[in-house]
Amino acid sequence: QVQLVESGGGLVQAGDSLRLSCAAAKAAGRTFSIYAVGWFRQAPGKEREFVAAITWIAGTTYYADSMKDRFTISRNNAKNTVYLQMNTLKPEDTAVYYCARARVQSPRREDYDSWGQGTQVTVSS
User: Which pLDDT tens digit goes with each residue over 62-119?
Assistant: First the structure.
């Protein structure tokens, strides 16, 4: 239903900031319909974990407890883009970051579909 493309990852030093972007576009012949977009991350050998989510219409945000002090999720509806501002990055933040669409705002991976390909974030110590 929706194509999601992440960008903005890269190699940074501890303490730096990055802003990730998730651009959404409808698939040809499909209706563009999003209730919420979430960010997840997955480090090598670890489970994919929830980072943050935002509803499309109201812009209501939800964060994992471990993320809310340093990460900020936002969206630009006109550009069909969701952002993840990451500040004071730590080596533990190193992971592939994914965005995904959901019909409900949720921290559960099973509630999401239309996953993007991911963007690599590497934080050196």
Answer: 999 999 899 999 999 888 899 999 999 999 999 999 999 998 899 999 999 899 999 9
Q: Which two tokens stand for residue 94?
A: 């190193």
- Per-residue DSSP letters for 12-60? EETT--EEEEEEEEEPTTS----SEEEEEEE-TTS--EEEEEEETTT--
Sole residue written with tokens 């012949």: 29
Contact of 60 with 105, CB cutoff 8 Å: yes
CA distance 9 to 41: 12
For CA atoms 41, 19, 6, 72, give the dihedral sign: positive
What span, in angstroms and rounded, lies between the C-alpha atoms of 63 and 114? 20
